[in-house]
Amino acid sequence: MSCSQFAVFLLCLSLALAYNFNYPNGPTTQVTCDKGESQLYSRIGEKYYFLGKTKITWFEAAHICRQYGGDLADIESAEEMDAISTYLKKEHNENDWFWIAGNDLVTVHKFASLATGLPLTFTSWSVGQPDFPGTEQCMHLWLRDGAFRMNNWVCTQKAYYLCQRQNYTRCWDGC
Ligand SMILES: [Ca+2]
């Protein structure tokens, strides 16, 4: 290892250690996990997210979020829902759908978060949802009545996806 490589190593190590004490608060943060590529997360409201730009199944999306230091997004309040809706309406096509963490794969129509394993503490269903019990078991966001809201849909269908940054020990910010 050369001196410059060692200096980069020390810088990365110090940032990784500092990360444990300083939650990022800028508009973006770059997250890298062991053996993975870096992923840029953008702040929306009080959390950091990235949007998956390919259409994939809910199961594939769950794995890809984990690969990049996140989970499918867990929307926990009306404030978070509104901030995400405003962002999606501004930045993305209104016909795009985005997978999130909610699902009822364990107990039909008892929706829980893949990120926490716990029942959802907040939902913002669009009118008439959830429907088709036992068939539509994964949640996504779609634009209905002027805002992005929640719908249950068939998990093996393909959509874009919204990942939320998590604090895994094998992932770190800044390097
Ligand atoms: Ca539905």
Q: What this model shows, in words?
A:
- The protein has one domain: Mannose-Binding Protein A, subunit A (Mannose-Binding Protein A, Chain A, Roll), CATH 3.10.100.
- It has helices at 3-19, 58-67, 78-91; strands at residues 28-33, 39-44, 47-56, 70-72, 98-103, 112-113, 138-144, 147-153, 159-165, 171-173.
- A hairpin with an 8-residue loop joins strand 5 (98-103) and strand 6 (112-113).
- It is elongated.
- The longest helix is centred in the first third of the chain and has 17 residues, at 3-19.
- It is 23% helix and 33% strand.
- The protein is of the alpha+beta class and 175 residues long.
- The structure holds calcium ion.
- Calcium ion binds at residues 129-132, 136, 151-153.
Can you give me a brief rundown of this structure?
Residues 1-18 form the signal peptide. With 175 residues, the chain is an alpha+beta fold. It has one domain (25-173): Mannose-Binding Protein A, subunit A (Mannose-Binding Protein A, Chain A), CATH 3.10.100.10.
Number of helices: 3
* CATH H-level superfamily: Mannose-Binding Protein A, subunit A
Distance N to C terminus: 18 Å
CATH architecture call: Roll
The CATH class is identified as Alpha Beta
Query: Which fold name is given in CATH as the topology?
Result: Mannose-Binding Protein A, Chain A
The assigned structural class equals: alpha+beta
Biggest beta sheet attributes? 10 strands, mixed
**Bulk shape:** elongated
**How big a fraction of the residues is strand?**
25-35%
Number of domains: 1
Helix content: 10-25%
Bound molecules: calcium ion
Q: Work out the radius of gyration.
A: 17 Å
Low-confidence stretches: none
The count of DSSP E runs of length 2 or more, i.e. the number of strands, is 10
The average pLDDT score comes to 89
The string of secondary-structure elements, in order, is HEEEHEHEEEEEE
